[in-house]
Protein backbone atom coordinates (compact mmCIF):
# COMPACT_ATOMS: atom_id res chain seq x y z
CA UNK A 1 0.00 0.00 0.00
CA UNK A 2 1.62 3.28 -1.08
CA UNK A 3 -0.58 5.60 0.98
CA UNK A 4 -1.50 5.62 4.64
CA UNK A 5 -4.86 4.21 5.53
CA UNK A 6 -7.60 6.84 5.31
CA UNK A 7 -8.98 7.79 8.72
CA UNK A 8 -12.76 8.09 8.51
CA UNK A 9 -12.91 9.30 12.10
CA UNK A 10 -13.61 12.63 13.80
CA UNK A 11 -9.96 13.20 14.71
CA UNK A 12 -7.21 12.36 14.50
CA UNK A 13 -7.86 12.51 10.79
CA UNK A 14 -6.07 12.20 7.47
CA UNK A 15 -3.61 15.06 6.96
CA UNK A 16 -1.75 16.18 3.84
CA UNK A 17 1.87 15.33 3.17
CA UNK A 18 2.63 19.05 3.39
CA UNK A 19 1.26 19.18 6.94
CA UNK A 20 3.21 16.08 7.95
CA UNK A 21 6.43 17.46 6.42
CA UNK A 22 6.12 20.62 8.53
CA UNK A 23 6.91 18.48 11.57
CA UNK A 24 10.40 17.49 10.42
CA UNK A 25 12.18 20.29 12.29
CA UNK A 26 12.98 21.05 15.90
CA UNK A 27 12.05 24.40 17.39
CA UNK A 28 13.10 26.23 20.55
CA UNK A 29 10.02 27.31 22.46
CA UNK A 30 11.65 30.63 23.48
CA UNK A 31 13.12 31.37 20.08
CA UNK A 32 11.88 34.36 18.08
CA UNK A 33 11.06 32.13 15.07
CA UNK A 34 8.71 29.94 17.10
CA UNK A 35 7.20 32.94 18.88
CA UNK A 36 6.37 34.31 15.42
CA UNK A 37 4.67 31.03 14.43
CA UNK A 38 2.52 31.10 17.58
CA UNK A 39 1.53 34.73 16.96
CA UNK A 40 0.67 34.00 13.34
CA UNK A 41 -1.42 30.95 14.24
CA UNK A 42 -3.34 32.96 16.85
CA UNK A 43 -3.94 35.82 14.43
CA UNK A 44 -5.24 33.53 11.68
CA UNK A 45 -7.43 31.53 14.09
CA UNK A 46 -9.11 34.74 15.25
CA UNK A 47 -9.74 35.76 11.64
CA UNK A 48 -11.62 32.49 10.97
CA UNK A 49 -14.35 33.53 13.44
CA UNK A 50 -14.03 37.28 12.66
CA UNK A 51 -13.16 37.75 16.33
CA UNK A 52 -10.28 40.23 15.97
CA UNK A 53 -12.15 43.09 17.68
CA UNK A 54 -14.14 41.19 20.27
CA UNK A 55 -12.20 38.10 21.29
CA UNK A 56 -8.76 36.73 22.11
CA UNK A 57 -7.66 33.19 21.34
CA UNK A 58 -5.78 31.19 23.95
CA UNK A 59 -4.02 28.00 22.82
CA UNK A 60 -3.61 25.15 25.28
CA UNK A 61 -1.58 21.94 25.25
CA UNK A 62 -3.47 18.65 25.23
CA UNK A 63 -6.44 17.07 23.48
CA UNK A 64 -9.67 18.99 22.88
CA UNK A 65 -11.22 17.96 26.19
CA UNK A 66 -8.40 19.70 28.07
CA UNK A 67 -9.49 22.97 26.49
CA UNK A 68 -13.19 22.39 27.26
CA UNK A 69 -12.27 21.74 30.88
CA UNK A 70 -10.00 24.80 30.93
CA UNK A 71 -12.72 26.99 29.39
CA UNK A 72 -15.29 25.99 32.02
CA UNK A 73 -12.84 26.42 34.90
CA UNK A 74 -11.57 29.78 33.62
CA UNK A 75 -14.83 31.39 32.54
CA UNK A 76 -17.28 30.14 35.16
CA UNK A 77 -16.79 31.58 38.66
CA UNK A 78 -16.52 28.99 41.42
CA UNK A 79 -20.04 29.83 42.58
CA UNK A 80 -21.42 29.79 39.03
CA UNK A 81 -24.20 27.49 37.84
CA UNK A 82 -23.83 25.77 34.48
CA UNK A 83 -26.62 24.34 32.34
CA UNK A 84 -25.52 21.74 29.80
CA UNK A 85 -27.80 21.14 26.80
CA UNK A 86 -27.47 17.39 26.44
CA UNK A 87 -28.08 15.43 23.25
CA UNK A 88 -25.12 13.09 23.30
CA UNK A 89 -21.92 11.71 24.77
CA UNK A 90 -19.83 14.90 24.39
CA UNK A 91 -22.53 16.79 26.31
CA UNK A 92 -22.35 14.20 29.09
CA UNK A 93 -18.58 14.61 29.14
CA UNK A 94 -19.02 18.39 29.48
CA UNK A 95 -21.39 18.02 32.42
CA UNK A 96 -19.08 15.53 34.11
CA UNK A 97 -16.04 17.80 33.84
CA UNK A 98 -18.09 20.79 35.01
CA UNK A 99 -19.07 18.87 38.14
CA UNK A 100 -15.48 17.73 38.67
CA UNK A 101 -14.38 21.38 38.47
CA UNK A 102 -16.69 21.92 41.43
CA UNK A 103 -19.23 24.06 39.57
CA UNK A 104 -22.91 23.55 40.12
CA UNK A 105 -24.26 21.81 37.02
CA UNK A 106 -27.74 21.11 35.67
CA UNK A 107 -28.55 19.15 32.55
CA UNK A 108 -31.38 19.73 30.09
CA UNK A 109 -31.82 16.39 28.28
CA UNK A 110 -32.83 15.94 24.65
CA UNK A 111 -33.09 12.94 22.31
CA UNK A 112 -29.79 11.96 20.69
CA UNK A 113 -31.25 11.96 17.18
CA UNK A 114 -32.47 15.56 17.34
CA UNK A 115 -30.96 19.02 17.87
CA UNK A 116 -31.36 20.67 21.27
CA UNK A 117 -34.25 23.13 21.47
CA UNK A 118 -33.67 26.87 21.93
CA UNK A 119 -37.29 27.25 23.09
CA UNK A 120 -36.79 24.64 25.82
CA UNK A 121 -33.61 26.46 26.84
CA UNK A 122 -35.48 29.74 27.12
CA UNK A 123 -38.14 28.16 29.34
CA UNK A 124 -35.44 26.67 31.56
CA UNK A 125 -33.58 29.99 31.89
CA UNK A 126 -36.80 31.78 32.89
CA UNK A 127 -37.53 29.02 35.37
CA UNK A 128 -34.00 28.94 36.82
CA UNK A 129 -32.54 32.45 37.26
CA UNK A 130 -29.54 31.04 39.14
CA UNK A 131 -28.07 29.59 35.92
CA UNK A 132 -25.06 31.74 35.00
CA UNK A 133 -23.68 29.85 31.97
CA UNK A 134 -24.94 27.54 29.25
CA UNK A 135 -22.78 24.89 27.59
CA UNK A 136 -23.64 23.91 24.01
CA UNK A 137 -21.96 21.30 21.83
CA UNK A 138 -22.20 22.75 18.30
CA UNK A 139 -21.86 19.48 16.39
CA UNK A 140 -22.64 16.53 18.67
CA UNK A 141 -20.05 14.18 17.23
CA UNK A 142 -21.54 11.07 18.85
CA UNK A 143 -24.54 10.95 16.47
CA UNK A 144 -23.46 13.76 14.11
CA UNK A 145 -26.28 16.22 14.92
CA UNK A 146 -25.84 19.93 14.21
CA UNK A 147 -27.17 21.99 17.13
CA UNK A 148 -28.71 25.47 16.63
CA UNK A 149 -25.80 27.69 17.71
CA UNK A 150 -27.24 31.02 16.54
CA UNK A 151 -30.62 30.47 18.22
CA UNK A 152 -29.06 29.29 21.49
CA UNK A 153 -26.63 32.24 21.50
CA UNK A 154 -29.50 34.65 20.97
CA UNK A 155 -31.46 33.20 23.93
CA UNK A 156 -28.39 33.41 26.16
CA UNK A 157 -27.78 37.02 25.11
CA UNK A 158 -31.39 38.01 25.69
CA UNK A 159 -31.42 36.47 29.17
CA UNK A 160 -27.98 37.73 30.15
CA UNK A 161 -26.32 34.35 30.60
CA UNK A 162 -22.84 33.31 29.49
CA UNK A 163 -22.40 30.80 26.69
CA UNK A 164 -19.57 28.28 26.32
CA UNK A 165 -19.52 26.47 22.98
CA UNK A 166 -17.73 23.21 22.27
CA UNK A 167 -17.21 23.72 18.53
CA UNK A 168 -14.54 21.06 18.36
CA UNK A 169 -15.85 19.17 15.36
CA UNK A 170 -17.51 22.13 13.60
CA UNK A 171 -14.98 24.98 13.81
CA UNK A 172 -13.52 25.91 10.39
CA UNK A 173 -16.21 23.89 8.57
CA UNK A 174 -19.57 25.24 9.76
CA UNK A 175 -19.91 29.04 9.72
CA UNK A 176 -19.26 30.77 13.06
CA UNK A 177 -19.14 34.58 13.06
CA UNK A 178 -18.26 36.20 16.38
CA UNK A 179 -19.69 39.52 15.12
CA UNK A 180 -23.15 37.97 14.79
CA UNK A 181 -23.10 35.23 17.43
CA UNK A 182 -22.43 36.20 21.01
CA UNK A 183 -20.40 33.66 23.02
CA UNK A 184 -18.17 33.95 26.09
CA UNK A 185 -15.91 31.08 25.06
CA UNK A 186 -15.72 28.79 22.04
CA UNK A 187 -13.45 25.77 22.01
CA UNK A 188 -11.83 23.87 19.14
CA UNK A 189 -8.63 21.93 18.48
CA UNK A 190 -5.80 21.40 16.00
CA UNK A 191 -6.71 17.91 14.85
CA UNK A 192 -10.27 18.39 13.57
CA UNK A 193 -11.60 20.42 10.63
CA UNK A 194 -8.44 22.51 10.28
CA UNK A 195 -6.78 19.20 9.40
CA UNK A 196 -3.77 19.66 11.66
CA UNK A 197 -2.41 16.94 13.91
CA UNK A 198 -3.81 16.40 17.41
CA UNK A 199 -2.08 17.81 20.48
CA UNK A 200 -3.46 21.28 21.21
CA UNK A 201 -6.77 23.02 21.66
CA UNK A 202 -7.62 26.71 21.57
CA UNK A 203 -10.31 28.78 23.20
CA UNK A 204 -11.78 32.01 21.88
CA UNK A 205 -12.68 34.13 24.89
CA UNK A 206 -14.62 37.38 24.70
CA UNK A 207 -12.30 40.18 25.83
CA UNK A 208 -14.85 41.69 28.21
CA UNK A 209 -15.28 38.28 29.85
CA UNK A 210 -11.60 37.40 30.13
CA UNK A 211 -10.88 40.51 32.20
CA UNK A 212 -13.01 39.12 35.02
CA UNK A 213 -11.61 35.59 34.96
CA UNK A 214 -8.52 36.00 37.15
CA UNK A 215 -8.49 33.43 39.93
CA UNK A 216 -11.48 31.42 38.71
CA UNK A 217 -9.46 28.35 37.73
CA UNK A 218 -8.44 25.92 40.44
CA UNK A 219 -5.90 24.40 38.03
CA UNK A 220 -2.43 25.85 37.52
CA UNK A 221 -1.69 24.33 34.12
CA UNK A 222 -5.15 24.81 32.63
CA UNK A 223 -5.81 28.41 33.66
CA UNK A 224 -6.56 30.24 30.41
CA UNK A 225 -6.37 33.64 32.09
CA UNK A 226 -2.76 33.03 33.15
CA UNK A 227 -1.92 31.32 29.85
CA UNK A 228 -3.17 34.41 28.01
CA UNK A 229 -1.39 36.88 30.29
CA UNK A 230 1.92 35.04 29.84
CA UNK A 231 1.48 34.83 26.06
CA UNK A 232 0.74 38.54 25.82
CA UNK A 233 3.71 39.45 28.03
CA UNK A 234 6.33 37.17 26.46
CA UNK A 235 4.96 35.77 23.19
CA UNK A 236 5.71 32.34 24.65
CA UNK A 237 3.51 29.54 25.84
CA UNK A 238 3.54 29.38 29.65
CA UNK A 239 4.76 25.77 29.74
CA UNK A 240 6.44 23.62 27.07
CA UNK A 241 4.43 23.99 23.86
CA UNK A 242 3.72 21.10 21.48
CA UNK A 243 6.11 22.70 18.96
CA UNK A 244 5.62 20.20 16.14
CA UNK A 245 1.85 20.37 16.51
CA UNK A 246 1.93 24.18 16.32
CA UNK A 247 4.04 24.32 13.15
CA UNK A 248 1.88 21.60 11.57
CA UNK A 249 -1.22 23.63 12.45
CA UNK A 250 0.34 26.72 10.89
CA UNK A 251 0.93 24.77 7.66
CA UNK A 252 -2.60 23.31 7.82
CA UNK A 253 -4.09 26.80 8.21
CA UNK A 254 -2.11 27.97 5.16
CA UNK A 255 -3.75 25.18 3.12
CA UNK A 256 -7.15 26.02 4.62
CA UNK A 257 -6.72 29.62 3.43
CA UNK A 258 -5.51 28.54 -0.02
CA UNK A 259 -8.51 26.23 -0.39
CA UNK A 260 -10.86 29.20 0.18
CA UNK A 261 -11.37 29.16 3.94
CA UNK A 262 -14.48 27.99 5.78
CA UNK A 263 -16.94 28.12 2.84
CA UNK A 264 -14.66 25.95 0.69
CA UNK A 265 -14.04 23.51 3.51
CA UNK A 266 -17.76 23.21 4.18
CA UNK A 267 -18.40 22.62 0.48
CA UNK A 268 -15.84 19.81 0.31
CA UNK A 269 -17.15 18.16 3.49
CA UNK A 270 -20.77 18.50 2.32
CA UNK A 271 -19.80 16.80 -0.94
CA UNK A 272 -17.96 14.06 1.01
CA UNK A 273 -21.05 13.58 3.16
CA UNK A 274 -23.43 13.42 0.17
CA UNK A 275 -21.15 10.99 -1.68
CA UNK A 276 -20.97 8.81 1.41
CA UNK A 277 -24.70 8.76 2.15
CA UNK A 278 -25.58 8.12 -1.50
CA UNK A 279 -23.13 5.23 -1.77
CA UNK A 280 -23.98 3.65 1.57
CA UNK A 281 -27.71 3.91 0.90
CA UNK A 282 -27.14 2.05 -2.38
CA UNK A 283 -25.42 -0.67 -0.32
CA UNK A 284 -28.57 -0.97 1.78
CA UNK A 285 -27.18 0.90 4.81
CA UNK A 286 -29.42 3.41 6.54
CA UNK A 287 -28.29 6.71 8.12
CA UNK A 288 -29.41 7.12 11.74
CA UNK A 289 -30.34 10.82 11.47
CA UNK A 290 -32.96 12.63 9.45
CA UNK A 291 -31.17 14.63 6.71
CA UNK A 292 -32.24 17.97 8.23
CA UNK A 293 -30.30 17.27 11.46
CA UNK A 294 -27.19 15.81 9.85
CA UNK A 295 -24.01 17.90 10.06
CA UNK A 296 -21.56 17.16 7.21
CA UNK A 297 -18.94 16.06 9.74
CA UNK A 298 -19.63 12.46 10.69
CA UNK A 299 -22.46 10.11 9.71
CA UNK A 300 -23.94 7.42 11.95
CA UNK A 301 -25.29 4.36 10.16
CA UNK A 302 -27.45 1.58 11.52
CA UNK A 303 -25.50 -1.65 11.65
CA UNK A 304 -26.76 -4.18 9.07
CA UNK A 305 -29.57 -6.24 10.55
CA UNK A 306 -27.88 -9.54 9.73
CA UNK A 307 -26.67 -12.41 11.96
CA UNK A 308 -23.22 -12.37 10.31
CA UNK A 309 -22.59 -8.70 11.25
CA UNK A 310 -19.90 -8.04 13.82
CA UNK A 311 -18.30 -4.57 14.13
CA UNK A 312 -14.81 -5.91 14.88
CA UNK A 313 -14.80 -8.12 11.77
CA UNK A 314 -16.35 -5.34 9.68
CA UNK A 315 -13.71 -2.88 10.93
CA UNK A 316 -10.88 -5.32 10.13
CA UNK A 317 -12.22 -6.01 6.65
CA UNK A 318 -12.49 -2.27 5.87
CA UNK A 319 -9.05 -1.62 7.37
CA UNK A 320 -7.52 -4.33 5.17
CA UNK A 321 -8.85 -2.30 2.23
CA UNK A 322 -7.27 0.92 3.51
CA UNK A 323 -10.10 2.61 5.44
CA UNK A 324 -10.51 3.09 9.19
CA UNK A 325 -14.12 3.27 10.36
CA UNK A 326 -15.33 4.40 13.76
CA UNK A 327 -17.52 2.56 16.25
CA UNK A 328 -20.97 3.90 17.12
CA UNK A 329 -21.45 5.88 20.32
CA UNK A 330 -25.16 5.56 20.94
CA UNK A 331 -26.77 3.94 23.92
CA UNK A 332 -29.82 2.25 22.42
CA UNK A 333 -29.16 1.10 18.85
CA UNK A 334 -26.24 -0.72 17.22
CA UNK A 335 -24.49 1.69 14.84
CA UNK A 336 -21.14 2.55 13.30
CA UNK A 337 -19.82 5.92 12.18
CA UNK A 338 -18.00 7.26 9.14
CA UNK A 339 -16.28 10.65 9.22
CA UNK A 340 -16.47 13.08 6.29
CA UNK A 341 -13.63 15.31 7.49
CA UNK A 342 -9.88 15.34 6.84
CA UNK A 343 -7.72 15.84 3.78
CA UNK A 344 -9.95 13.67 1.59
CA UNK A 345 -12.41 14.32 -1.21
CA UNK A 346 -15.03 12.64 -3.35
CA UNK A 347 -12.64 10.03 -4.80
CA UNK A 348 -11.63 8.79 -1.33
CA UNK A 349 -15.25 8.75 -0.15
CA UNK A 350 -16.28 6.67 -3.16
CA UNK A 351 -13.35 4.31 -2.51
CA UNK A 352 -14.50 4.06 1.11
CA UNK A 353 -18.00 3.10 0.01
CA UNK A 354 -16.55 0.44 -2.31
CA UNK A 355 -14.41 -0.88 0.56
CA UNK A 356 -17.46 -1.08 2.84
CA UNK A 357 -19.40 -2.99 0.16
CA UNK A 358 -16.55 -5.45 -0.30
CA UNK A 359 -16.17 -5.84 3.49
CA UNK A 360 -19.87 -6.65 3.87
CA UNK A 361 -19.76 -9.23 1.07
CA UNK A 362 -16.67 -10.81 2.62
CA UNK A 363 -18.69 -11.24 5.83
CA UNK A 364 -21.48 -12.93 3.86
CA UNK A 365 -23.82 -9.95 3.99
CA UNK A 366 -25.41 -9.47 0.59
CA UNK A 367 -25.52 -5.95 -0.90
CA UNK A 368 -28.03 -4.94 -3.59
CA UNK A 369 -26.91 -6.12 -7.05
CA UNK A 370 -26.55 -2.60 -8.47
CA UNK A 371 -24.09 -1.68 -5.68
CA UNK A 372 -22.00 -4.83 -6.14
CA UNK A 373 -21.49 -4.21 -9.87
C1 LIG B 1 -13.32 15.55 19.36
C2 LIG B 1 -14.25 16.25 20.25
C3 LIG B 1 -13.87 16.69 21.54
C4 LIG B 1 -12.49 16.48 22.09
O1 LIG B 1 -12.15 15.15 22.25
P1 LIG B 1 -10.66 14.78 22.62
O2 LIG B 1 -10.70 13.28 22.61
O3 LIG B 1 -10.35 15.33 23.93
O4 LIG B 1 -9.79 15.35 21.54
C5 LIG B 1 -14.77 17.39 22.29
N1 LIG B 1 -16.00 17.65 21.82
C6 LIG B 1 -16.41 17.25 20.62
C7 LIG B 1 -17.80 17.60 20.17
C8 LIG B 1 -15.56 16.53 19.78
O5 LIG B 1 -15.97 16.14 18.56
Written overview of the protein:
By secondary structure, the chain is an alpha/beta fold. It has 2 domains: about 5-10 and about 260-370, Aspartate Aminotransferase, domain 1, CATH 3.90.1150.10; about 15-260, Aspartate Aminotransferase, domain 2, CATH 3.40.640. The chain has 13 helices and 14 strands. The chain has helices at about 15-20, 30-50, 65-75, 90-100, 120-125, 150-160, 205-210, 225-235, 245-260, 260-280, 310-320, 345-360, 370, and strands spanning about 5, 55-60, 80-85, 105-110, 135, 140, 145, 160-165, 185-190, 200-205, 300, 325, 325, 335-340. Helix 11 crosses helix 12. The structure holds pyridoxal-5'-phosphate. Pyridoxal-5'-phosphate (PLP) binds near residues 64, 65, 168 and 189.
Quick gist of this model?
The chain is α/β, with parallel strands linked by helices and 373 residues long. It is built from 13 helices and 14 strands. Helices cover 40% and strands 16% of the residues.
SSE layout:
Layout lengths: L5 E2 L9 H5 L10 H17 L6 E7 L2 H12 L5 E6 L2 H12 L3 E6 L8 H10 L5 E5 L1 E2 L4 E2 L2 H10 L3 E5 L18 E5 L10 E7 H4 L13 H11 L8 H17 L1 H22 L15 E5 L8 H10 L2 E2 L1 E2 L7 E5 L6 H17 L6 H4 L1
Parallel strand pairs: 1-12, 3-4, 3-5, 5-8, 8-9
Antiparallel strand pairs: 2-10, 6-7, 9-10, 11-14, 13-14
Helix pairs in contact: 2-9, 5-6, 9-10, 10-12, 11-12
This protein binds pyridoxal-5'-phosphate (PLP).
Pyridoxal-5'-phosphate (PLP) binds next to helix 3.
Amino acid sequence: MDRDRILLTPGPLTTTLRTKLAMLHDWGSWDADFIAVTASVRRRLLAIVHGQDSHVVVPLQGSGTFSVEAAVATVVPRDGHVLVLDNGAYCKRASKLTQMMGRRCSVLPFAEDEPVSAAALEAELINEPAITHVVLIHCETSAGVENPLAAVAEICRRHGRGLIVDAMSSFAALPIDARAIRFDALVAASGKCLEGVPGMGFVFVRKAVLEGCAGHSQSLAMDLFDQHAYLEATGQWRFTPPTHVVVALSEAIAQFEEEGGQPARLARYADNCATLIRGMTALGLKPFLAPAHQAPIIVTFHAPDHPAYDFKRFYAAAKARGFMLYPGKLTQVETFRVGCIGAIGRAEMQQAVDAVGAALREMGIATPPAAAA
